[in-house]
Design a protein that fits this description.
homodimer; 436 residues; alpha/beta; Rossmann fold; Dihydrodipicolinate Reductase, domain 2; Alpha-Beta Plaits; 3 domains; eleven-stranded mixed beta sheet; six-stranded parallel beta sheet; elongated
Chain lengths: 436, 436
């Protein structure tokens, strides 16, 4: 226990950065007992170096320029918590270039430039830890990359954006409209002032990119992800889904098929009795399907200073252990040996097969249901469930169906035909359905 | 990829042993891509070497005496799947003695003799992997030992015996009596012919011993676990619990308190809206409470050849990576550095505090409720929920209460006083309640 402390250089002193300092300080004894040496933040960078923080910065050299730490400071590990993909990339590459292992929570950086980052790390033989980049404190990267190493992973699906999950949960429990639930989320700090990245699905797509890569052994390919958010979800759809036995969740889904890998992020109907449908509020969850393990899942806090710090510190501990050992003894960054990470064909969305939820508003007249079901039958689409609501006081009637599994292209064609019917209003709603 | 294969010596060719061979064969390409070299079973032992198996044994040297492999065969890793605590111990220690890393699924061995096993492994500087010993394919050991390494783990609770969970689920869903649900479980292969170890809680206690040790950094201490099974659970209690908003699950619970560590295994009422209450059938789940991560959980298949093989192979992959590196680069067996694993005081069950469910059958006469509530009040026990059922056709009335949190000793005293009341029948039922 008398070994020299492991020196951490922290880039960024925001919520997560302060969380890392707080956790390392509070659990110093516990962590020393695990690692065999103390782990201490010796350097940190902050845009405003004089700002008061909630944690003690005693003994930490604070600098304004993170590059001073990444490229120069006497540290053993560089922890990047600045975010973004430009400065952060330069910092991470600078640290790697001088042989320093890096721990980062930056999903955007990895999803967009991870192949470069991991390539550089490989050349230098240093580790890059990124458990904190997906699902906060939940060790899902470790579960996939190490815990399920014996499996051929067939599919994964996750609630990996807490903002979306909070908004959808509020809409479900309180019947709120999207805009109202979003406003509440912003007031509570669960959504950013500009919530676009979260509610449009971009953040979830970053995370899905990372999960798919380590699950299937393919390079990071953010551009291949089909991305939809939750802005089109209405309280009406949520209620109809409930009546049919489903919950609406925003999921990231990666699936192997004989024709290619599906990579998609969208609001999804899930049977209400599945555990994944019951993970509410800001919680995250990831469901994994392996050929040996079957279905297994993890759930927990996907965000927050302490929860994200939990993952950052776990990575620091892993890195601490690896220091001084050869790269062949390390867990490969993308789960597979670098020369075994291979491009896999990505299935275009039009070719993706899934069940669908379709809600139509229709004029209240005879023969509507017959016409709708007739067109679906023409496209060889079966109806697994149907709900028709009587119009109230001159309103349109509502018809909602859950279809059989059908390709996106065929379903889109069928919807076009339905929209051409004179009594079908333009205001339709459709979401994919996953039964797991 | 042209590196020499990793040679596995498999002790035991039962369900899990065959699962390991099947998974290694089926996923040979995937595993080679992860490890950087093929992983091949070269030797296996079986009591009956001539028996036909469901997997191909081509290229595997089959012997009757496992010690031939443990102590002599040219293998890189010894995988112990024989079970029991005598022969298995000798085999594991023999393998360790000649510097071979060991992977085992044997919870009884580790719970009872793990301190010896890990001590020997430490001396030789070899790894002992035991992910498969708890919760089958769910990587819960890895989650605690590595994924939550930054946390002070405060508590854990798990459904870690699939037989118990299957029986309780059947009793809940079908209203079956314990004996009938057990008979069904036996018919389906979810319970052994002699189910004692499972239904009396011993198997769960073995697993809890292991989880508590790696969560809190203390030696394995099976004898300190307070063990109860599920044989006292009745359909009546399950129904009353449901009416009060609870499910009855068999849990292993380990908790830090200021006065010592709680280690207990028993049937437990859990609020029905908690995720852990919704993990049904043969599934396992473990809920972890860390100071940084908050609450997080894992769930999945806790048994079965392929699911358990998933964990065994994951350990093999970890061991494969570590071969040739110094012990200081390995994850310590019990999560903490060996010299930092310290005895912690164990709280005697009498001092454990929890809420309680108490069901009394009482003669149908005036003043009963007043007397019962009066005695509980005397012991300073509040009633959080109460349900009184009218007698039907001359039967006794039923009174069930959920109490406030109270020490076991005080609750037992109160129950004695209640039993002394002339109108209270001997047939009472009581279970602890956890609200998480």
């Amino acid at each position: 226990m008398s070994a020299a402390p492991l020196k951490i250089g922290l880039l960024g002193l925001g919520t997560v950065g302060q969380g890392v300092i707080r956790v390392l300080q509070r659990n110093a004894d516990e962590i020393t007992r695990r690692v065999g040496r103390p782990v201490v933040v010796t350097h940190a960078s902050a845009r405003d170096t004089s700002k008061a923080r909630e944690v003690s910065l005693d003994g930490i050299t604070i600098v304004a320029d993170p590059m001073q730490i990444a490229a120069g400071a006497d540290v053993d590990v560089v922890v990047e918590l600045i975010g973004g993909t430009t400065t952060a990339r330069d910092l991470v590459l600078a640290a790697i270039a001088r042989g320093k292992p890096v721990v980062t929570a930056n999903k955007a950086l990895l999803a967009l430039k991870g192949n470069d980052v991991f390539g550089a790390a490989r050349e230098q033989g240093v580790m890059v830890g990124f458990e904190a980049s997906v699902a906060g404190g939940i060790p899902v990267i470790k579960a996939i990359r190490e815990g399920l190493a014996g499996n051929r992973i067939e599919a994964l699906a996750g609630i990996i954006n807490g903002t979306c999950n909070y908004i959808l949960t509020q809409m479900t429990e309180k019947g709120q409209a999207f805009a109202d639930a979003l406003a509440d989320a912003q007031r509570l700090g669960y959504a950013e002032a500009d919530p676009t990245f979260d509610v449009e699905g971009v953040d979830a797509a970053h995370k899905l990119t990372i999960l798919a890569s380590i699950a299937f052994g393919m390079p990071l390919n953010f551009d291949a992800v089909a991305v939809e958010g939750i802005t089109r979800v209405t309280p009406q759809d949520i209620k109809i889904a409930q009546a049919l036995g489903y919950r609406i969740k925003h999921l990231g889904i990666a699936k192997r098929t004989p024709d290619g890998v599906e990579l998609r992020v969208h609001a999804t109907l899930i049977p209400e009795d599945k555990l994944i449908a019951k993970v509410d509020g800001v919680l995250n969850t990831v469901l994994l399907q392996g050929d040996a393990v079957g279905q297994m899942g993890l759930y927990g806090r996907g965000a927050g200073g302490d929860a994200t710090a939990s993952a950052v510190v776990a990575d620091i501990v892993d890195v601490a252990r690896s220091l001084g050992s050869e790269a062949r003894h390390h867990v490969p960054a993308l789960a597979f040996q670098p020369d075994a990470v291979v491009e896999l064909p990505i299935l275009p969305l039009e070719q993706v097969s899934s069940a669908h939820y379709l809600r139509l508003n229709v004029a209240d007249q005879a023969g509507v249901l017959k016409a709708v079901t007739g067109i679906l039958a023409e496209f060889d689409i079966s109806i697994e469930a149907i709900l028709q609501k009587e119009p109230r006081g001159g309103d349109d009637a509502t018809v909602a169906v859950i279809t059989s599994v059908v390709t996106e292209a065929r379903f889109v064609d069928a919807v076009s035909r339905l929209l051409a019917l004179p009594f079908v209003r333009e205001d339709i709603s459709r979401f994919r359905v996953e039964h797991f």
